[in-house]
Amino acid sequence: KNQVEQSPQSLIILEGKNCTLQCNYTVSPFSNLRWYKQDTGRGPVSLTIMTFSENTKSNGRYTATLDADTKQSSLHITASQLSDSASYICVVTTYNNDMRFGAGTRLTVKP
Amino acid sequence: DAMVIQNPRYQVTQFGKPVTLSCSQTLNHNVMYWYQQKSSQAPKLLFHYYDKDFNNEADTPDNFQSRRPNTSFCFLDIRSPGLGDAAMYLCATSRTRLAGAGGANVLTFGAGSRLTVL
After folding, report:
1. pLDDT in tens, A53-108
2. Could you state, in chain order, the average pLDDT of each consecutive group of 10 residues for chain B (118 residues)?
3. pLDDT for position A42
4. Smallest CA–CA distance from B89 into chain A, residue
5. Theoretical Cys-Cys bridge with B110: which of A26, B22, B46, B91, CB 3.0 to 4.6 Å?
6. Looking at the DSSP assignment, which residues form a beta bridge with residue B53?
7. Res A28: pLDDT
8. How far is B36 from chain A (nearest CA, A)?
9. What phi and psi, each to the nearest 5 degrees, are found at residue A73?
10. CA–CA separation, A50 vs B27, rounded Å?
11. Residues on chain A touching B45 (C-beta within 8 angstroms)
């Protein structure tokens, strides 16, 4: 069983709408959590990195939250654009330097 | 711009014919990684180099080898590709592999090399 679970697997929204992607993890001991955006046919690009003490971090229209007690993170996208269509991958790193990848959420933004 | 460059972007090979994928970086990062990513799946770590120190994942098949002749370059050699090896191969770098070093182990990925096996 993957220790980083993302939901939903795929999501279709209309341009301009908001959406929230979820990441639940059981990885420990937790060090940090990162969200990556992966465009089709490209490598992932880091959006945010959050450590144990951080609850919220924003990067433009992207806002990530972290609840270390419940081991949940979310990525909220505001006012979606066509260019937001991509896979969003959650990566959790332990203090043992073990990086665990989620399978990603495939987001499609339609006009 | 400093970056991670992978070549070729697309590689078609025949079953059993060796193939080499290359990765170069201008970030002067100490760590270089190779990941295999199949459709709709998470990237799977094959191995990584910390400087010249090679670290193989336990479940990486012997068919996959790697070389790092210098800080800037790292190669992935697939000795006898099978149909199951068709995938996107991602190279990534990080300044360090230490998780506790703040963002220093953030991965910078290349654009990937897509391998097709006929």
Report:
1. 889 999 999 999 999 899 999 999 999 999 999 999 999 988 877 888 999 999 99
2. 88 96 95 92 92 92 96 96 96 80 75 95
3. 87
4. A43
5. B91
6. B50
7. 84
8. 11
9. -135, 155
10. 23
11. 99
- Write down the pLDDT at residue B85: 96
Q: Which two tokens stand for residue A12?
A: 């279709």
CB atoms within 10 A of CB B68: 18
End-to-end, the C-alpha distance of chain A in Å comes to 36
3-state percent helix, strand, coil for chain B, nearest multiple of 5: 5, 50, 45
Nearest-Cα distance to chain B for A98, in Å, is 8
* Bridge pairing between strands A10-14 and A105-110: parallel
Q: Is A31 on the interface with B (CB under 8 A)?
A: yes
Strand partners for A4: A25
Task: Report the gap between the CA of A31 and the closest CA in chain B (Å).
Answer: 6
A86 CA to centre of own chain: 11
Angstrom distance (rounded) from CA B35 to CA B13: 19
How far apart (Å, rounded) are the C-alpha atoms in residues A84 and A77? 9
The confidence score (pLDDT) of residue A97 equals: 77
Query: Whose structure tokens read 């339609």?
Result: A110
Whether residue A8 is preceded by a cis peptide bond, meaning omega within 30 degrees of 0, is yes
Chain A contacts of B102, Cβ < 8 Å?
51
What residues of chain B have any CB closer than 8 angstroms to a CB in chain A? 4, 6, 40-45, 88, 90-92, 97-100, 102-103, 105-112, 114
Contact B42 A2 (CB under 8 A): yes
